[in-house]
Amino acid sequence: MQPPRSFLEDIIDERIEMAPVEPATFDDLLASGWRLLGYAIIRHNFTSSRGQICQTIPLRIRLDSSLNFSKSQRRLLRRNADLDVRVGPIRITPEKNALFLRHAQRFQDRQPTSIFTFLHTTPSEVPVTGLEFAVYDKDRLVACSYIHLGEQAVSGTYCFYEPDIRGRSLGAFTILLELQLAQQMGKQFYYHGYCNNVPSEFDYKLNFNNLEAMDWKSGLWTPQPRVPTRCVS
Question: Full-prediction pTM beyond 0.90?
Fold first, then answer.
């Protein structure tokens, strides 16, 4: 299926090499639709989904005092209160890479072979300070997620989890943990990637209050209604 000609004429597909940047500059990049991917900072307003070209919609969550979690999200936090969450600088270990490879088996197309498909080799420092949430069930690592810190913004950079665990919704759980920490740090925005303008596996990112979306033509961010979905596992 071919996209409309007008869309083809307005395609954005840009990347810059990953390098250290000032936290305020990182804020500006995120606010302009850029995101982190491996050794680059990228932005693109199109992708493929289910065999067709579609548009991407950058998303963020405003972290002011009006942000509250839904009833199901609060229930998820209570359900996982027994897990041990360790927050610190990003450290890639064989244990984490092995978990990533098990998680990557969920991808049907273009299955990644290394965690560095999504992270720089010095992710705790480049392009800005990076932190990890390592989630343990007793002594077993079951999830790991990464954020990068701007001056007033936080990038939810990547998350992976044990694919054989059901009922804990670990992907949604780590997003809630990241939001809580971002609020505690006094940040203004949490950027959690993009969804598509057609239904896709990214629709879970719409299930948050204080949601905003960016218009590629104007560069403006506007409030969006929360779209409840089932928590992803």
Answer: yes
